[in-house]
Amino acid sequence: MISQIIPCLTWLLAAGTSLVSLSWIDSLIIAIYFLFVLGIGYYLLKFTKTGDDFFLAGRKMTAWIAGLSFVAANLGSLELMGWAASAYQYGILATHWYWIGAIPAMLFLAIIMMPFYYISKTHSVPGYLKLRFGESASMLSAVTFGFMTVLMSGINMYAMALVMKVVLGWDINFSIWVSSLTVMVYVVLGGLLSAIFNEVLQFMLIWLGALLVPILGLIEAGGWGGMVAKIHHNFPGGDYTHLWSTLGTFKDNPMGINWVGIVFGLGAIISFGYWTTDFLVVQRLLSAKDIRSAKMAPIIGAGFKMMVPFIVILPGLLGLALIPGLVSEQQAVATGAQSYNEVLPLMLARYLSPGLLGLGITALIAGFMSGMAGNVSAFATVWTYDIYRPLHVKAKGNEGEDAHYVKIGRWTTILGVIVSIGTAYLVQHFASIMDYVQALFSFFIAPLFGTVVLGMLWKRATAAGGFWGLLAGIVSSVSMYIIVKINPSMLKVFALSSDAKEMAADMYRALWSWLICVAVTVIVSYLTKPKTDAELNGLVRGCTVLPSEGDLPLVKRPIFWAGVILVIFIILNIIFW
Amino acid sequence: MVGEGRISIWFFIGAILLIYGVIIFAAGIYELINPAFGAGVKLHELHSSFWWGILLIIIGLVYTIKFKPGKV
Asked: Is residue A159 a contact partner of residue A7, using CB atoms and an 8 Å limit?
């Protein structure tokens, strides 16, 4: 999900003049956007009084709002730019990160996992681990998540500032401070409620700001058929428009990966790990007003996620057809040519006249801010409930007032933004930190999914099993990363092929660390005493009576819509096979 | 979503789209009167600002009217 940021940044660091210039109309549109998000934050202050209001938006969100916010929190502007660039580099293969790399996991979350997150009334994913596996696993998860979230937020902030510098010529300090302080103000004022409101607004602006590019691009290219013909003409011998037919072996596609890595590494582990256990996105679902809404929200999110390639991947493919000759960042730095990392802003500048360009740039800014608000609101919740509260209870001997935690949440939001800003400046001086922080983030995703899914589906899993399994998974992931860094030839051992490339390394590292986590959890669990069924009520499948959906008609049942989305997902994969 | 007298998020979305629609539509009209304005972009002859502005105004009006404050 975040691996596309680094290539972009390498190019951005070396780039010279700005790509587009804004008119006063464009600036007006951007200024109105900032006024709106701040105004919404101020307006929602009076509705944010209790801990549930601040951290879970009062648990009153409809399925649509929770679902759109769920997708928007993931849709950062660098993701938009990064995956458009990937589409130019790898062709339609980049779509796997939006389809098999998201849809099955989102549907699994909706139907299988969401009931337990929701019924347990937890505030967070580490909070669920505390109920299921106890303090140790929860604290390990909370500390790693909290730490990594603010660091990632800082890296994204710096990356966004660089994008604004290169695309618009804006000063880096101006971009960092204006965007981060805006996010801080509206999240401090309205908490998750404000973050969600703004994320839904940002989601709409991202779509309406970016949608014209593929529409006009297809008109210019002569439709899908014309675009494919132009790509074949520009790149004879290359296959950029098939999803699966080139994945038989590592050598047949530019990603250097095979279908096993995509299906099991990306589709089964990385995607499930991210979409089902990353609290940044799961928090949005916990705000749903009832269990049916909580289940419907990721299904609605999946529907929109499936369409995102239209505004992200298609511009990259249209770039292949209409502006061939963009090169890698190394070549761009060496020759002064334009890099394919520029493809999205180039397409914006190609089609959007004054006014529309402002809307397109607002879409990029909105993408960044929705991602950052997601980071800081999730960080504030995990810090307050999963790190601060246990320590506070131990020190004071009582639970403490709800208002106290709201106050801590607000201060933690400010702290999170300040640490993010600090990280942004740190990265500015030590760019290599970005590589390591992103790698660190990836270490936790796959093992955490192993721990959570076993916790929910296997009642025999014990507290010791959960903790040691999670730790073993993280340690094994870190070890594999270090081994390959020291000795790159070891990649062929982990990826089971001498043709494997960097992308395959991530997939197979996730797969192995998940398997190790699961194996250790199972072994340790069989050696330790499990909880009783009564203690696991509301936490584990088989020990919990799930609330009935009553006499709801078929078209109102989540399982029906999950089936519809699944069928569309399969059809799309067959069409673009 | 309208809860506890709160203005719906969809109203805010409608309002900003309406404002953007008016601005972009006005830019589109200006483009029609002065063809040199924004002539540097591809497919300039399609007058995308004009049509996109109308689309935003329609969406904005639908949302602001349907979710106007006080209406449940």
From this structure: no
Q: Cα separations (Å) of A417 from A142, A150, A301, A331, A407?
A: 18, 8, 27, 36, 16
Bridge partners of residue A288, in order along the sequence: A61
End-to-end C-alpha distance for chain B, whole angstroms = 9
- What's residue A3's pLDDT? 46
In chain B, domain spans: 9-66
Q: pTM for this one?
A: 0.85
Angle of helix A433-457 relative to helix A502-527, nearest 10 degrees, comes to 40
Question: Which of A27-41, A254-268, A337-351, A362-376 is predicted least confidently?
Answer: A254-268
Q: What is the 3-state composition of chain A as percent helix, strand, coil, each rounded to the nearest 5?
A: 80, 0, 20
Range of the domain at A237: 5-542
Which chain B residues are Cβ-neighbours of A29 within 8 angstroms? 20, 23-24
Residues of A in contact with B52 (CB under 8 A): 212, 356
Residue A512 maps to a domain: yes
Chain A closest-CA separation from residue B1 CA (Å): 7
Q: List Cβ neighbours of A286 (8 Å cut-off, separation of 6 or more).
A: A56, A59, A117, A118, A122, A123, A124, A294
What sign results for the dihedral spanned by CA atoms A542, A546, A551, A554? negative
Spatial distance between the Cα atoms of B25 and A504, rounded to a whole number of angstroms: 47
Neighbours of A308 (CB within 10 A): 24
Write the ipTM.
0.91
Measure the CA–CA gap between A239 and A245, rounded to whole angstroms. 9
Of the candidates A344, A427, A343, which has an alpha carbon nearest to the alpha carbon of residue A155? A427
Query: Cα separation of B28 and B37, whole Å?
Result: 9
CA distance A546 to A64: 23
Mean pLDDT of A493-522: 82
Cβ partners under 8 Å of residue A87, min gap 6: A94, A95, A312, A313, A314, A315, A316, A317, A319, A320, A343
Show the tokens assigned to B36. Answer: 């040199």
Nearest to A37 by CA among A148, A194, A147, A178: A194
Number of domains within chain A: 1
C-alpha distance from A513 to closest chain B C-alpha (Å): 41
- CA-closest candidate to residue A406, choices A42, A39, A41, A58: A58
- Over the stretch A438-489, which tens digit does the pLDDT of each residue have? 566 668 888 888 999 999 999 999 999 999 999 999 999 889 888 888 888 8
pLDDT digits (tens, 9 = 90+) for A294-313: 999 999 999 999 999 999 89
Question: What is the Rg, in whole angstroms, of the alpha carbon atoms belonging to chain B?
Answer: 16
Q: d(Cα A18, Cα A39) in Å, to the nearest integer?
A: 31
Dihedral (Cα; A463, A465, A468, A470), 10-degree rounding = -90
CATH number, domain of A125, equals 1.20.1730.10
Q: In this complex, which of A28, A200, A355 lies closest to B49 when CB atoms are compared? A: A355
* DSSP state letters, A461-473: --HHHHHHHHHHH
Q: Is A31 on the interface with B (CB under 8 A)?
A: no
Q: Angle CA(A131)–CA(A468)–CA(A274) in degrees, nearest 5?
A: 65
The CA R_g of chain A, rounded to the nearest whole Å, is 23
Alpha-carbon gap: B48 to the closest alpha carbon of chain A (Å)? 8
Answer yes or no: is A254 within a domain: yes
> What number of C-beta contacts closer than 8 Å exist between A and B?
87
Partner residue opposite A36 with nearest CB, options B12, B46, B53: B12
